[in-house]
């Protein structure tokens, strides 16, 4: 598939489908982008597993960190990669050795490795590259607009309120 | 909707404005509140740490203002926007984020007189040094670049001279100099021209004018084009260095291609404080819904009035880029194909005295220091908006003694012409 541009429906489908997300390269530093993503995805109800050998056995944003993908004790639906584009290939190969296979490989903003993407797609694994799941979630649910950021979504359907104040969920639009 | 890219008129009405999540209100609610309750301390901490999206306090964000921001970002083709209290507050916010004391920026010498004042005086006291150039002179622009240059600033269509900037040419110079190009798009509006498409990195507006469109609310906005690589540049520490305000966060790394708008908000607006009122944001966002219709009518009326003035024997000259005789007509056809805006100047025979007499004699056209109202407006810049400038600066800015500025409204054009006709007869 073409990875220059993704339909909103493709991204929405992924964020709707996955439950357990491994974040490879998650940082314990609370001002790093990877920490933000872990924290945000937890707040949206995902079961997040930070993966970072340096932090193995310690908690990041309140959840236990695994040393590697192979060390995770439950099936992983999506592997989110916070490594540079070259290193992404090794992570994808590791992910493709998991049993069961993850449903989705996601590479962060500025991370893209087309060869690794082809390996994953050959095994029926969906791929997203050069995107941030936090930004995509916030864009599709409407929260990102509060920061003045263009969501590129227009809709006559009201956003879906989650429990508490100022929390939107992803299924803003009724399915046709 | 599917992934169809909506058209400009659709965006003007819908961008940013889904039905209200709490009530289903279909018009944008006016969230006239200073503060927003937290669920718990964890949510509060995440919001203060910029880890979650949400509103804390209206000086920083507000859901009504956010609709305006998303709408203008969409119309300009930017990644994000920050609405503030006025056009001048927008300019202050942009330069506060880009400049350190001792830095320079290059600005067109044909700006709105208030911008010339702001750059010459207020900004100098912050140690931000403006270098004026004629943006039509590519060689002079290149010569003005120094190792202290951090930005280039111009208007797409200048107030009041009616000069059209060759944005692509200026953007090329900015790129070669490694600095962002900032375009004040107040007079053109994104309906007529979208500067980011021609290489601008940042767009600012006085929303007070055609965007709001009804002369009822002050406002300004900063639009982030998402095009400038702050990390690679390394010359903009507000974006590329760890920020002590946020425990060492690097904003360009965390917020990617909308980091500039975020920096202007969480460093600039948060500390400088020039927030727009949610009520003004509501009025302006509502005004923008009819921007395409209004702007076309403004332009059509302005062209008719300019053509009529050009043939009048008490008029020395008319400077309107929509006229075939105008020096900027070629640039206008490229950058403003739908119309050359509604603000232009003409020279009245009899100089300063005649100008003063003319503005005192109109009955429909209002004598006010404003532009971009639904009503037609008239002013004599030399005696009002530009009076603080030296004679040389006045002439350079297109505001010499004989100059009268019009902002043509959306009334019946025959009535506008009839009023000018009787007022010219008084001279
Ligand atoms: C081109 C232009 N830029 C900026 C401004 C300043 O905007 P404000 O009056 O909203 O501060 C004006 C106001 O006349 C203007 O015409």
CATH class of chain A: Alpha Beta
Number of helical elements of chain B: 18
Taken together, the total number of domains of chain B comes to: 2
Mean pLDDT of chain A: 94
Bound molecules: pyridoxal-5'-phosphate
Q: Helical residue percent of chain A?
A: 25-40%
Count of the separate structural domains of chain A: 1
- Spatial gap, N to C terminus of chain A: 24 Å
What is the beta-strand fraction of chain B?
5-15%
Assign an overall shape of chain A: globular
Structural class from helices and strands of chain B?
alpha/beta
List the topology elements:
The complex is a heterodimer of chains A (176) and B (427).
Chain A (H helix, E strand, L loop, with lengths): L7 H10 L2 E5 L8 H11 L3 E5 L7 E2 L2 E2 L13 E4 L3 H12 L7 E4 L6 H9 L3 E3 L4 H9 L18 E2 L6 E2 L7
Helix pairs in contact in A: 1-5, 3-4
Chain B lengths: L7 H7 L26 H8 L14 H14 L3 E5 L2 H12 L5 E5 L4 H13 L3 E5 L4 H7 L4 E7 L11 H11 L3 E4 L4 H4 L9 E5 L13 E5 L5 H4 L3 H4 L10 H5 L3 H14 L5 H11 L2 H20 L4 E5 L9 H7 L7 E6 L2 H9 L6 E2 L9 E3 L11 H6 L6 E5 L5 H13 L2
Helix pairs in contact in B: 1-3, 3-13, 4-12
The site of pyridoxal-5'-phosphate has 17 residues of chain B, from helix 4 and helix 5.
């Amino acid at each position: 598939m073409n990875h220059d541009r993704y339909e909103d429906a493709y991204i929405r489908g992924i964020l709707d489908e996955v439950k357990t997300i491994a974040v490879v390269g998650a940082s314990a530093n609370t001002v790093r982008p990877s920490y933000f993503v872990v924290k945000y995805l937890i707040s949206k109800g995902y079961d997040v597993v930070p993966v970072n050998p340096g932090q193995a056995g310690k908690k990041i944003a309140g959840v236990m960190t695994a040393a590697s993908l192979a060390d995770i004790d439950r099936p992983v639906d999506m592997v989110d990669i916070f490594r540079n584009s070259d290193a992404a290939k090794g992570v994808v190969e590791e992910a493709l050795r998991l049993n069961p296979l993850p449903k989705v490989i996601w590479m962060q903003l500025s991370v893209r490795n087309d060869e690794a993407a082809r390996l994953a797609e050959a095994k029926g694994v969906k791929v997203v590259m050069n995107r941030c799941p936090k930004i995509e979630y916030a864009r599709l649910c409407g929260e990102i607009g509060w920061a003045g950021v263009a969501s590129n979504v227009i809709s006559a359907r009201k956003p879906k309120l989650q429990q508490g104040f100022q929390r939107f969920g992803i299924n803003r639009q009724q399915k046709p | 909707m599917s992934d169809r890219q909506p058209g400009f008129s659709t965006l003007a009405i819908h961008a940013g404005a889904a039905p209200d999540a709490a009530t289903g209100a279909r018009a944008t609610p006016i969230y006239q509140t200073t503060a927003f309750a937290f669920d718990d301390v964890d949510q509060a901490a995440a919001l203060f740490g910029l880890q979650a999206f949400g509103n804390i306090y209206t000086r920083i964000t507000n859901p009504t203002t956010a609709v305006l921001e998303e709408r203008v970002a969409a119309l300009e083709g930017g990644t994000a926007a920050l609405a503030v209290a006025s056009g001048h507050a927008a300019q202050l916010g942009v330069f506060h984020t880009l400049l350190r004391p001792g830095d320079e920026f290059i600005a067109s010498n044909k700006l709105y007189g208030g911008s010339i004042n702001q750059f010459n005086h207020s900004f100098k006291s912050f140690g931000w040094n403006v270098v004026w150039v004629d943006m039509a002179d590519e060689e002079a622009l290149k010569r003005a670049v120094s190792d202290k240059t951090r930005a280039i600033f111009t208007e797409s269509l200048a107030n009041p001279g009616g000069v059209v900037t060759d944005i692509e040419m200026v953007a090329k110079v900015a790129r070669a100099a490694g600095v962002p190009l900032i375009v004040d798009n107040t007079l053109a509006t994104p309906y007529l021209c979208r500067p980011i498409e021609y290489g601008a990195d940042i767009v600012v507006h006085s929303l007070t004018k055609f965007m709001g469109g009804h002369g009822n609310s002050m406002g300004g906005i900063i639009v982030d084009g998402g095009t400038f690589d702050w990390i690679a540049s390394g010359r903009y520490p507000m974006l590329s260095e760890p920020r002590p305000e946020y425990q060492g966060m690097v904003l360009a790394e965390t917020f990617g291609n909308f980091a500039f708008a975020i920096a202007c908000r969480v460093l600039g607006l948060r500390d400088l404080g020039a927030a727009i009122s949610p009520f003004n944001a509501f009025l302006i966002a509502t005004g923008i819904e009819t921007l395409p219709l209004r702007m076309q009518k403004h332009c059509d009326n302005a062209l008719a009035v300019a053509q009529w003035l050009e043939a009048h024997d008490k008029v020395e000259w008319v400077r309107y880029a929509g006229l075939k005789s105008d020096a900027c007509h070629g640039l206008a056809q490229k950058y403003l194909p739908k119309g050359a805006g509604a603000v232009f100047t003409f020279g009245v025979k009899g100089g300063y005295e005649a100008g003063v007499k003319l503005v005192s004699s109109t009955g429909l056209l209002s004598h006010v220091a404003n532009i971009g109202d639904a009503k037609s407006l008239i002013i004599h810049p030399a005696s009002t908006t530009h009076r603080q400038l030296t004679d040389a600066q006045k002439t350079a800015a297109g505001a010499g003694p004989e100059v009268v500025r019009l902002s043509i409204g959306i009334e019946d054009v025959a009535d506008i012409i009839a009023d000018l006709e009787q007022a010219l007869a008084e001279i």
